[in-house]
Amino acid sequence: MKHHTLGHNGPQVSALGLGCMGMSDLYGKADRSEGIATVHAALDAGITLLDTGDFYGMGDNELLLGEALAGRPRDSYQLSVKFGAQRGPDGAWLGYDSRPAAVKTALAYSLKRLRTDYIDVYRPARLDPNVSIEDTVGAIAELVQAGYVRHLGLSEVGAETIRRAHAVLPVADLQIEYSLISRGIEDAILPACRELGIAVTAYGVLSRGLISGHWTKNHGTDARDFRQHSPRFQGDNLEHNLQLVDVLRGLADARGCSVAQLAIAWVLARGDDIVPLVGARTRERLNEALGALQVTLTGDDLATIERAVPPDAAAGDRYATAQMAMLDSERDAR
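Structure tokens predicted for Aldo/keto reductase:
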């Protein structure tokens, strides 16, 4: 397993990270014991970066990780935690709260659920429109000073917000969606990160399973799976996007790998400052994702892939309209 530094001053992390959201929430029914086994398998394979959010399953995902990590040396893994999203008892999304007092309260509960005394990278899940980023980051800076947090991260924010936050406290990494069919960061956000020495932890590298090679138009639906509300998974958009997957399948077959491995390898090839987060919920999917580390794409390979699936190839937005409106990052992508 290769390792990279998150930004100029961030932690050393594995070249591939594990996104744990789906083990508890938003993708429908999940097997908790399999989730814990998948975390163990990831650690045993050399993955050290584990990403979660305090609102995934209203704390359940942190509890799962706390259980899975019991007995593991604390310096053998890094915890990346998002906070700020507010949810009701029915799972409804109620907005964001990144006031300084809320930041510190959220961290206190995360530390308890994760059974740890510090978080490696702590980040607001979204920009709170009612709180200046300077106030939010200032609170995190106090938590860093106190030893409860090691590094500042950001999530789904644009270049201007990145610069403002970085001026208060150095940002280790920006967590944002980035894949073959979600390339909006390339125009302004990624250049700003590289100028400032900020890494990118890329989620959605398989576009939530859409370009994994395993999704079909007859894929079963679960009322708890938010993908049924995603424009990319609906109607004619889905038909169009699965045609792109068929193109990728031909390219993957020619290179002796799976569609998922090709898509992950493409993100890996974008630079050592980009760390893909794979949202594997099972050991089978994890093992497939790990295989991407063995796929070497040449310059000609990358050019062929990008001709076949250009930046604007996908049909449909990556989130529903209401959620897109909450993304500070989309101001730079439009």
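DSSP finds twelve helices and twelve strands in the chain.
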